[in-house]
Amino acid sequence: MMAMQSGGKTIWADEGAYPVRERLGEASEGEVLVVDIGGGMGHDLVGFRERHPGVKGRLVLQELPYMIERVEGQGGIEGVELMGHYFYGEQPVKGSCHRVFSLSFSRSSALQLKK
Ligand SMILES: C[S@@+](CC[C@H](N)C(=O)[O-])C[C@H]1O[C@@H](n2cnc3c(N)ncnc32)[C@H](O)[C@@H]1O
What we know:
Strand content: 15-25%
Radius of gyration: 13 Å
Strand order of the largest sheet: 3-2-1-4-5
Mean pLDDT: 79
Helix content: 10-25%
Bound molecules: S-adenosylmethionine
Oligomer: single chain
Largest sheet: 5 strands, mixed
Number of helices: 3
Distance between the termini: 31 Å
Low-confidence stretches: 105-115
Shape: globular
Number of strands: 5
């Protein structure tokens, strides 16, 4: 597994940016907490875990298939599920009441929340 670090960059999960604990709450063990759509190499999810290590729930990185292959080629990311998906298609992650879709196209991106 890739021991990636977010490198101290500013991300949406930073203290004082998006109110993670108030808005996300916690998912149960098997539930998806965050889906990062177009999440690149997964830096924001890694950063999320660094900043909020105790928050339960699965983290999913959705990216173009070639990007997912690239991440897999580097050994994957511990604690992050990789999913090749084009965001114009139907969202395959469904059914959780603790679900966030992170359209992080920039460092200061907004989030689209679905409960
Ligand atoms: C500007 S980058 C942002 C990457 C990351 N979220 C960040 O903030 O560093 C946009 C990302 O969207 C992905 N992307 C572009 N078109 C996509 C599509 N149709 N479906 C899924 N991901 C896509 C690209 O591969 C790229 O990694």
